[in-house]
Specification:
By secondary structure, this protein is α+β, with helices and mostly antiparallel strands. 51% of the residues lie in helices and 19% in strands.
């Protein structure tokens, strides 16, 4: 396919035009991808940092609140009635409006004050936030569920000291998660102007601290949802790079949360986005690139096709004209206007063909003279010997007495020589004069059997073994007598090539339109030098031959629309193949 000039020009043009487009497209695509990744990184990180900062401020306010509660004059008075403490705490949370309720516990962990009156008398000494408060720390718990409230809560705790500095109890407010979520949602919306985002807060164990659906807080595992391990979570929180989920569908910005107090676990703010939505502009860009490239590609193909057609068409016309000239027709240059080089090539071809025709005429004239010279020399040689004999006998008759017996003897010799000249002249006429062929449909097997039945008795049985392997009936279109002449000549030559004892085999193979009749002998064979000259008139290796036999056979087979082929190896034998048509469509 690539041997075609038009195909090569088209391919090279496409490569030259397409490669820069592809390279520029790839560079632009990668540049846009890098820009989008940077924008997504900045947007998600900014969103998560905003959430972290707001969360820090929100928690700082809650810790400030719990400190104020723990230093309230009523709360720090060990002698204040329980009802007064409860009233004071209720006033506080009503003023703030962010809490579910507040507990006051004694040093044993017993709930003595509960603004919701659900846990009075319960002992919560085993809660981590109670233990941390006894140690003198403000503490922020993880999300947990209690029977006092329907939704999960986060608890703060702080130690309560009296005016003397003695620890007298623990105050513990529980604030609402929806307040925390509302704050996160407000900050996340600043990112979602570009594309929708998911956001939530989690601890290091993957437990949700805050999310849109508070009922799923304690049950959903953020680690599983993100496809991340604890180790990867800690590593991602220390980097500004976005974390890509294992399934490759989402990317996340993970930032650690500062609580402003001791916590049960580390908290992390997470802002995630769908990769498809983040990189949708990139996909749109890729679609535009592909569309533009396809249009450019089609335009290039069309333009190059028209260009190559204008280049290749004159070349194609020149090739057709040259092939027609080879087939014997006149060379006709294309009259279509083309580029200058092609017109010059046409002119050069015309001049070359004129030169070839002139030289061909000269070669033909030279070959004719050479052939005539060879023919004349051969004829002179073949006729001169009999004429010399006849002349000599006439001289003898003239110089001697007229003896009848001698005259008869000499006359017989002269007549023999005249017959010899007549045979030679007949062979020359047979070679030169075309015959009127009598075409017929011939059964080759019966034809060979008929010839061999009459020819075999003339062969000495001790000298040559003749084997006929033609067993199948096959019909050919030929002239019986002319084919017989060729076949007998081949048999005679094969018999003469066998010195003492030998074998001649006759075989036949059929093809679609021809039959191959092969005559093989194991005689002395023909040397490569002599094989090249076989078929030339007057060339022979026989002492009494004239070289016209094989030449006549070759000419007869050409008249019969077949071929005469000789293959031979010195001292191994010779095979003659007669190719005979089996259909009359070659006959004109």
């Amino acid at each position: 396919m690539l041997k075609s000039l038009q195909t090569r020009i088209l391919l090279y043009s496409l490569l030259i035009a397409s490669v820069p487009v592809l390279i520029l497209g790839a560079i632009s695509y990668e540049s846009q991808r890098s820009l989008l990744e940077k924008e997504a990184n900045n947007a998600l990180n900014a969103g998560s940092l905003n959430i972290v900062n707001e969360t820090y401020n929100y928690l700082k306010e809650r810790i400030t609140d719990v400190k104020l509660m723990s230093t309230n004059s009523v709360i720090i008075d060990p002698h204040s009635p329980r009802e007064d403490k409860s009233l004071e705490l209720k006033k506080f949370i009503e003023a703030k409006g962010k809490y579910n309720g507040v507990l006051y516990l004694d040093l044993e962990g017993n709930v003595t004050v509960d603004t919701s009156n659900n846990l009075i008398g319960d002992n919560l000494s085993k809660r981590i936030w109670f233990k941390e408060a006894l140690e003198g720390h403000e503490f922020l718990s993880d999300v947990y569920k209690t029977r006092a409230y329907e939704d999960p809560i986060i608890t703060l705790s702080a130690p309560v000291h009296d005016l003397s500095g003695n620890l007298i109890g623990v105050v513990s407010p529980a604030f609402r998660l929806e307040e925390l979520w509302s704050m996160m949602e407000k900050k996340a919306n600043e990112v979602s102007d570009k594309y929708p985002v998911d956001f939530f807060m989690m601890n290091q164990d993957g437990i949700m601290i805050s999310k849109k659906d508070p009922h799923g807080v304690l049950h959903d595992s953020a680690l599983d949802e993100m496809g991340i391990t604890k180790k990867e979570l800690m590593k991602a929180s220390l980097s500004n790079e976005l974390y890509s989920a294992e399934n490759g569908e989402k990317i996340y910005s993970i930032q650690p949360v500062r609580a402003g107090a001791q916590t049960e676990n580390r908290w992390f703010a997470v802002v995630g986005a769908d990769k498809k939505q983040v990189f949708q502009p990139l996909n749109d860009l890729l679609t535009r690139y592909l569309t533009i490239y396809s249009l450019v590609f089609v335009f290039i193909i069309l333009a190059v096709y028209l260009l190559t057609r204008s280049i290749v068409r004159p070349v194609h016309d020149l090739v057709e004209a040259t092939e027609a000239f080879i087939d014997g027709k006149d060379f006709i240059a294309s009259d279509q206007r083309s580029f200058e080089e092609m017109e010059k090539l046409n002119v050069a071809f015309l001049r070359m063909i004129e030169t070839i025709e002139d030289r061909e005429k000269e070669i033909v004239r030279t070959e004719k003279l050479k052939y005539v010279g060879q023919l004349a020399a051969g004829v002179a040689h073949e006729i001169r010997n009999p004429l010399t004999t006849i002349k000599g006998f006439f001289q003898l008759l003239k110089s001697q007495d007229h003896d009848k017996t001698l005259i008869e003897k000499y006359s017989d010799v002269m007549l023999l020589e005249v017959d010899r000249v007549n045979v030679f002249v007949s062979q020359l006429l047979d070679l030169a004069k075309p015959h009127q062929l009598e075409w017929e449909k011939l059964d080759l097997k019966d034809f060979l059997d008929e010839i061999l039945d009459t020819y075999t008795p003339s062969i000495p049985s001790y000298h040559v073994e003749l084997i006929n392997r033609v067993a199948e009936t096959v019909f050919v279109y030929t002239d019986r007598n002319r084919l017989r002449q060729v076949f007998l000549n081949v048999l005679n030559n094969s018999c003469e090539a066998i010195n003492s004892r030998g074998r001649i085999e006759i075989q036949q193979t059929s093809e679609s339109q021809y039959v191959k009749l092969m005559v093989s002998d194991d005689g002395k064979g023909i040397s490569p030098e002599n094989l090249k000259k076989i078929g030339m008139p007057f060339y022979t290796t026989k002492p009494d031959g004239n070289g016209l036999g094989v030449a006549t056979c070759i000419q007869i087979m050409e008249e019969l629309k077949g071929k005469f082929i000789i293959e031979s190896t010195s001292f191994k034998g010779t095979r003659v193949t007669l190719i005979i048509p089996i259909t009359n469509r070659f006959i004109r």
